[in-house]
């Protein structure tokens, strides 16, 4: 058996969970290929027996990049078994249900849908800053969850977290609003004087939205607010609304394969 996991991860949480799935399937001698959807040219399901989709949550729903991926995903006639997971700051999200529905429309058979509480990378806009201990606890719980989900899947048992219709509706409205205000929110990102123009943010921005002009980092209008630039900056020089942000993603950001 061979599986493929497509993910989007701005600051490492979703990739961290993907790595745990890879480990867990590996322990069962099952190969799981992980693919980042950021710069994906072709979606090829040929030769894979199962599919996993992992997404972060922005404004209560999956980011647009995941929607675009789902639209491009080819239809299957083979009822390929699938797992959908999300990572978010809250305990759960309606995004899993929406992603699962999209997969089912394409002929996939969703066996597992699960949302995992992970450190909130946007705590400075909403919620509260996760302490180191809270972060460790969240990662431990997510790891246990991945183990359980993997055994359920391998035993061919369905496990779909219920999401009530009003929550889905609210999520869709919230995501629409978020996408509308996104250009305004993303204008809140600037580089402070500490910026050494090392180019790490520029090389790793999923939207190629950053350039250096006349000795300054310029953030253009394609930003999706994934916050990678803020959390990876070696000088912590990237500000949100002029404020210095505590880089809380240190536990997970290193699992992204960053261009150095
Ligand atoms: C722009 C933005 C919006 C977010 N909105 C939500 C939200 O509505 N609900 C939530 O629980 N978490 C929200 N979060 C937190 C992230 O979903 C969470 O930290 C996620 O695990 C990040 O995954 P990543 O590190 O793979 O990018 C948001 C994060 C960002 C950057």
TrEMBL record:
<dbReference type="InterPro" id="IPR017896">
    <property type="entry name" value="4Fe4S_Fe-S-bd"/>
</dbReference>
<feature type="domain" description="4Fe-4S ferredoxin-type">
    <location>
        <begin position="186"/>
        <end position="215"/>
    </location>
</feature>
<dbReference type="Pfam" id="PF12724">
    <property type="entry name" value="Flavodoxin_5"/>
</dbReference>
<protein>
    <recommendedName>
        <fullName>Ferredoxin</fullName>
    </recommendedName>
</protein>
<dbReference type="GO" id="GO:0016651">
    <property type="term" value="F:oxidoreductase activity, acting on NAD(P)H"/>
</dbReference>
<dbReference type="GO" id="GO:0010181">
    <property type="term" value="F:FMN binding"/>
</dbReference>
<keyword id="KW-0479">Metal-binding</keyword>
<dbReference type="GO" id="GO:0046872">
    <property type="term" value="F:metal ion binding"/>
</dbReference>
<comment type="function">
    <text>Ferredoxins are iron-sulfur proteins that transfer electrons in a wide variety of metabolic reactions.</text>
</comment>
<dbReference type="GO" id="GO:0051539">
    <property type="term" value="F:4 iron, 4 sulfur cluster binding"/>
</dbReference>
<dbReference type="InterPro" id="IPR017900">
    <property type="entry name" value="4Fe4S_Fe_S_CS"/>
</dbReference>
<keyword id="KW-0411">Iron-sulfur</keyword>
<dbReference type="InterPro" id="IPR008254">
    <property type="entry name" value="Flavodoxin/NO_synth"/>
</dbReference>
<keyword id="KW-0408">Iron</keyword>
<feature type="domain" description="Flavodoxin-like">
    <location>
        <begin position="3"/>
        <end position="140"/>
    </location>
</feature>
<dbReference type="InterPro" id="IPR047964">
    <property type="entry name" value="EFR1-like"/>
</dbReference>
<feature type="domain" description="4Fe-4S ferredoxin-type">
    <location>
        <begin position="218"/>
        <end position="243"/>
    </location>
</feature>
<dbReference type="InterPro" id="IPR029039">
    <property type="entry name" value="Flavoprotein-like_sf"/>
</dbReference>
<keyword id="KW-0004">4Fe-4S</keyword>
<dbReference type="Pfam" id="PF12838">
    <property type="entry name" value="Fer4_7"/>
</dbReference>
<dbReference type="InterPro" id="IPR050157">
    <property type="entry name" value="PSI_iron-sulfur_center"/>
</dbReference>
<dbReference type="InterPro" id="IPR026816">
    <property type="entry name" value="Flavodoxin_dom"/>
</dbReference>
């Amino acid at each position: 058996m061979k599986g493929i996991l497509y993910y989007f991860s701005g600051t490492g949480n979703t990739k961290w969970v993907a790595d745990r799935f890879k480990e867990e399937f590996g322990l069962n001698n099952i190969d799981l290929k992980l693919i980042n959807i950021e710069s994906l040219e072709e979606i090829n399901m040929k030769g894979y027996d199962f599919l996993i989709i992992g997404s972060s949550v922005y404004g209560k729903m999956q980011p647009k990049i995941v929607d675009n991926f789902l639209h491009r995903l080819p239809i299957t006639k083979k009822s390929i078994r699938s797992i959908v997971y999300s990572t978010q700051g809250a305990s759960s999200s309606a995004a899993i249900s929406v992603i699962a529905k999209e997969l089912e429309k394409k002929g996939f058979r969703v066996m597992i849908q699960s949302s995992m509480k992970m450190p909130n990378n946007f705590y400075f806009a909403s919620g509260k800053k996760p302490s180191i201990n809270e972060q460790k606890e969240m990662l431990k719980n997510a790891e246990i969850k991945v183990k359980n989900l993997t055994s359920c899947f391998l035993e061919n048992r369905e496990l779909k977290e219920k999401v009530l219709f009003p929550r889905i509706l609210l999520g869709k409205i919230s995501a629409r609003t978020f996408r509308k205000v996104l250009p305004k929110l993303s204008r809140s990102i600037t580089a402070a004087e500490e910026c050494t123009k090392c180019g790490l943010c520029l090389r790793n921005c999923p939207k190629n939205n950053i350039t250096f002009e006349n000795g300054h980092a310029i953030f253009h209008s394609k930003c999706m607010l994934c916050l990678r630039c803020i959390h990876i900056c070696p000088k912590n020089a990237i500000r949100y609304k002029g404020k210095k942000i505590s880089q809380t993603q240190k536990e997970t950001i290193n699992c992204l394969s960053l261009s150095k």
